[in-house]
Design goal:
The structure holds 2 protein chains of 2 kinds. By secondary structure, chain A is an alpha/beta fold. Chain A has helices spanning 6-14, 18-30, 33-42, 62-75, 104-108, 122-138, 153-160, 176-179, 201-218, 242-258, 262-297, 308-321, and strands at 51-56, 81-86, 95-97, 112-117, 144-149, 164-169, 190-193, 230-233. The longest helix of chain B is centred in the middle third of the chain and has 14 residues, at 70-83. The chains are: A alpha/beta, B alpha/beta. Strand 3 (95-97) of chain A pairs parallel with strand 2 (36-44) of chain B, so a sheet runs across the interface.
């Protein structure tokens, strides 16, 4: 199978061969020439899958909820795929990808699950995820669920760059002030208040409603939002609220489509992907020059009596006016 | 770029055996050895492990057994992977008497790691098994 070309693998993936899909995902994840070939072979047949981002704090029950939801979808005769992203160690590059522990039943129900590590470089994730989603789309999966730990800007960006962004919150996260802090909660198209069998779940709901009221008051929210985000109460471990979550996700897609915003959102996503690639290429092209300029001047007494910012400005000026030096 | 990709390992407890402490230690050793560990946890079957290996495009399977089932389950896993057409080596961790090692090696098990194996040995064993996979 190592001998098959990318276009043979794409044809096999479209025919439903999971192994071919898995190998294409590996190529995209690794980047480089093969990733480009996969992008070339897949970029023009996209747009069939509903791409859903699901994020939330560690331990909020994302994997359990995703599993329960995906099982329901599979039982309805749909073909869900899950791309589960976990962090890599910045020190060793290794990772423990633990999402499948909570997804044994989903895997048994025929849900395609792929675990993915962030592999250190934040830009890499933003490059790899859209490419991997496209492979799953081409392979006929729908919906494609991208699950990330909602702790960093990149994870928030990845979630925001979907058709429907689901944010999972739980009781015990903090008060209404926390709910109004910038970041994760702003990108949500809908909320799942998981572990809502806990006594203070009603408080979380109230705080979220209040936050959404304030968003309406200030006119601030996702510019491409179609409806006020729905809040669904779930208990992933018992399955309570999972049907409502599934319906709310489908309803959001319909609302986007009816409002003519689905294509607009996908165009924004495509442009963001172009930007990620551009940034990656420019950074890669300039890395050696930056390294040389930095290595030449960053040590020694020369920089001791100026601020780090001043040193950098001086180096940048030299680099940009005389790139050959 | 492709050659710098981390080794991907699926780790699981195969069959009825509730002791996963050792497997968690191994997961951490491999993570700190720069590998990506897809952790499946307890009570997995050959079928569930094969699903994971296929979808995750894994390079190595590591199964842990402390229930003396290795002579049955080790070859079962190797054969199940071969039957599925997956050329992925199997490493066994757990309590394996020395006299059983040749039997497991003959059955196609790529490596055996006993209790107290140092981290460097664990990583080297999985690394060597991964190198055997035809990529």
């Amino acid at each position: 199978m190592a001998d098959r070309t990318v276009s043979e693998l794409v044809a096999a993936a479209r025919g439903g061969e999971l192994r071919a899909t898995a190998r294409l995902l590996t190529f995209v994840e690794r980047g480089g020439d093969l990733a480009e070939q996969v992008a070339e072979a897949t970029h023009d047949h996209v747009g069939n899958a509903h791409v859903v981002g699901l994020t939330g704090p560690p331990g909020s029950g994302k994997s359990t909820l995703t599993a329960a939801w995906a099982i329901r979808l599979a039982e309805e005769g749909r073909r869900p795929a899950v791309l589960a992203v976990d962090p890599s160690s910045p020190l060793t590059g290794g990772a423990i990808l633990g999402d499948r522990v909570r997804m044994t039943a989903a895997a048994a129900a025929g849900v395609f699950i792929r675990s993915m590590a962030t592999r250190g470089h934040a830009g890499g994730l933003a490059l790899a995820v859209p490419g991997m989603v496209r492979v799953l789309d081409v392979a006929g999966f729908d919906p494609v669920i991208v699950e990330t730990v909602g702790v960093g800007q990149v994870e928030v960006d990845v979630t925001a760059a979907t058709d429907t962004a689901v944010v999972v919150v739980t009781p015990g996260m903090g008060d209404a002030v926390q709910a109004n802090k910038a970041g994760l909660l702003e990108v949500a198209d809908l909320f799942a208040v998981n572990k809502s069998d806990r006594p203070d779940a009603a408080d979380v709901r109230r705080d979220l409603e209040l936050m959404l009221d304030l968003s309406k008051l200030t006119g601030h929210g996702r510019p491409d939002a179609v409806v006020r985000p729905t809040i669904v109460s779930t208990v992933a471990t018992t399955g309570r609220g999972v049907a409502e979550l599934a319906d709310a996700v489908d309803t959001h897609l319909e609302a986007l489509r009816d409002a003519g915003l689905l294509e607009a959102r996908r165009e924004v996503r495509r442009r963001a992907e172009v930007r990620s690639h551009l940034e990656h290429l420019v950074l890669a092209a300039s890395a050696a020059a930056v390294e040389a300029a930095f290595g030449a001047a960053a040590s020694g007494a020369e920089t001791a009596d100026e601020s780090p910012g001043a040193t950098a400005r001086r180096l940048a000026e030299r680099l940009l006016t005389d790139p050959g030096s | 770029m492709a050659d710098a990709a981390p080794v991907r390992v699926v780790l699981a407890k195969l069959g009825l055996d509730g002791h996963d402490r050792g497997l968690k230690v191994v997961a951490r050793m491999l993570r700190d050895g720069g590998m990506e560990v897809v952790y499946l946890g307890l009570r997995q079957t050959t079928a569930s492990i094969i699903d994971a290996v296929e979808q995750e495009d894994a390079d190595v399977v590591g199964i842990s057994m402390l229930n003396a089932g290795h002579l049955t389950l080790g070859p079962l896993m190797v054969d199940a992977l071969a039957d599925a057409g997956l050329d992925v080596p199997v490493v066994i961790g757990g309590i394996v008497p020395d006299e059983d090692r040749p039997t497991l090696a003959a059955a196609g098990v790529a490596g055996v790691l006993g209790p107290g194996s140092p981290a460097a040995e664990v990583v080297a064993c999985v690394q060597a098994a991964a190198a055997r996979r035809g990529l």
